[in-house]
Automatic annotation (TrEMBL):
<dbReference type="GO" id="GO:0016887">
    <property type="term" value="F:ATP hydrolysis activity"/>
</dbReference>
<dbReference type="GO" id="GO:0055085">
    <property type="term" value="P:transmembrane transport"/>
</dbReference>
<keyword id="KW-0547">Nucleotide-binding</keyword>
<feature type="domain" description="ABC transporter">
    <location>
        <begin position="8"/>
        <end position="258"/>
    </location>
</feature>
<dbReference type="InterPro" id="IPR017871">
    <property type="entry name" value="ABC_transporter-like_CS"/>
</dbReference>
<protein>
    <submittedName>
        <fullName>ABC transporter ATP-binding protein</fullName>
    </submittedName>
</protein>
<dbReference type="InterPro" id="IPR027417">
    <property type="entry name" value="P-loop_NTPase"/>
</dbReference>
<dbReference type="Pfam" id="PF00005">
    <property type="entry name" value="ABC_tran"/>
</dbReference>
<dbReference type="GO" id="GO:0015833">
    <property type="term" value="P:peptide transport"/>
</dbReference>
<keyword id="KW-0813">Transport</keyword>
<dbReference type="InterPro" id="IPR013563">
    <property type="entry name" value="Oligopep_ABC_C"/>
</dbReference>
<dbReference type="InterPro" id="IPR050319">
    <property type="entry name" value="ABC_transp_ATP-bind"/>
</dbReference>
<keyword id="KW-0067">ATP-binding</keyword>
<dbReference type="InterPro" id="IPR003593">
    <property type="entry name" value="AAA+_ATPase"/>
</dbReference>
<dbReference type="Pfam" id="PF08352">
    <property type="entry name" value="oligo_HPY"/>
</dbReference>
<dbReference type="GO" id="GO:0005524">
    <property type="term" value="F:ATP binding"/>
</dbReference>
<dbReference type="InterPro" id="IPR003439">
    <property type="entry name" value="ABC_transporter-like_ATP-bd"/>
</dbReference>
Length: 361
């Protein structure tokens, strides 16, 4: 996947956490396994998946908050250097925005202080007057006006949407090349989510920022992004240009997500609405002891013998679209287009609604 035009890449990264079980026994959580993503200047990639699929962990690897257990992160094709200085230089280019704008801001400080502090750290050459001008300019860039007034407010005096704009202004203060947005709109009021997506869209278009947009909501991914990558239980299952992936998903899990996604006209759905169908098929697997083979196979109505034992290889579908699914290796990909996920599930169940042990195929 190496390409000079990528600003930030994760190449075959895995992250395993060691946790202590109830009896004090060490256990390994395989939060991310062999994942690859690549971001281009001015491009937006959505990382979509249900809770616990590893999206945040992958973003934290890209933000250099954790070292990967395996694989590497490349900034403009260069592997990361160690040390504090290198980390600071890295964070001047790559900024992470969390979903909770209140938790991200110190409640004791006015907006001006928060932005000024970042400017002092990252632009030590700027004098006081220069920093005052930059604070106003940053607040205007995120459409917070009158900027001079907003600068004097404390976080609790702002709405959730205004706070998230301050968080974005602080990220922009370091003049980054990449923004990693971890569900940046999910805690905001539904009525202002679209405004926030439009702000993110403007930043990538006007400033050439590369954006990783993490969400469980495929409708907002469709609105904002050029490309979509889908994660399931720590693994990437499919990635490709948005319209191709949504128009004709090539992995059963993507198909489930797309078919259970709400009408874009109705806006973003809640988790239950999105994953209702999936939940009927049982819980997502434990990442301490994930299923062998394809991690989706226990919930997949198309599963066959290989899926239960061997991890599916990557199939390239052209135009940057790829998937990890045995259907493609076994000449059965056409079945995905010929049915809905719900009908495929129904076909694997007996008349009493009980799942058969083996697919009839
Ligand atoms: N520091 C950690 N120590 C142990 N386990 C962790 C740690 N961070 C994440 N995990 C585990 O890794 C798995 C993936 O979590 P992650 O937060 O990356 O998923 P997610 O897709 O972002 O979910 P959500 O949408 O709920 O934020 C989960 O099982 C989680 O409990």
């Amino acid at each position: 996947m190496s390409d000079d035009s990528y600003v930030l890449e994760a190449r075959n990264v895995s992250k395993h956490f060691t946790v202590r079980g109830a009896a004090g026994r060490a256990r390994v959580v395989r939060a991310v396994e062999d994942a690859s993503v690549a971001l281009r200047p001015g491009g937006v990639l959505a990382l979509v998946g249900e809770s616990g699929s590893g999206k945040t962990t992958l973003a934290r690897l890209l933000a250099r908050f954790h070292p990967p257990t395996e694989g590497e992160i490349l900034l403009r094709g260069e592997p990361l250097r160690r040390g504090r200085r290198a980390a600071r230089a890295y964070h001047a280019e790559v900024q992470l925005i969390f979903q909770d704008p209140f938790g991200s801001l110190n409640p004791l400080h006015r907006v001006r202080y928060t932005l000024d502090r970042t400017l002092r750290l990252h632009e030590p050459g700027l004098d006081r007057a220069g920093r005052r001008r930059r604070v106003v300019e940053l607040l205007e860039r995120v459409s917070l006006s009158p900027a001079a007034e907003v600068a004097e407010k404390f976080p609790h005096e702002l709405s959730g949407g205004q706070r998230q704009r301050v968080v974005i202004a602080r990220a922009l203060a370091v003049r980054p090349k990449v923004l990693l947005g971890d569900e940046p709109i999910s805690m905001l009021d539904v009525s202002i989510r679209l405004d926030m997506l439009n702000l993110l869209h403007r930043l990538r278009a006007d400033e050439g920022l590369a954006l990783l947009y993490i969400t469980h909501d495929i409708a907002s991914a469709r609105y904002l992004c050029d490309d979509i990558a889908v994660m399931y239980a720590g693994r990437m299952v499919e990635s490709g240009p948005r319209e191709r992936l949504i128009g004709a998903p090539q992995h059963p899990y993507t198909k489930l997500l797309v078919e259970s996604s709400p009408d874009p006209e109705r806006g973003a759905a809640g988790r239950d609405e999105l994953f209702g169908d999936a939940d009927q098929l049982g819980e997502p697997p434990s990442l301490i002891d994930p299923p062998d083979g394809c991690r989706f196979h226990p919930r997949c109505p198309f599963a066959m013998a290989e899926c239960r034992t061997q991890s599916p290889p990557r199939t390239e579908l052209g135009d940057g679209h790829w998937t990890h699914c045995w259907l493609h290796q076994k000449g059965r990909a056409g079945e995905l287009a010929g049915t809905t996920f719900a009908s495929a599930v129904a076909a694997t169940r007996g008349a009493d609604g009980v799942a058969r042990q083996e697919s009839a195929r």
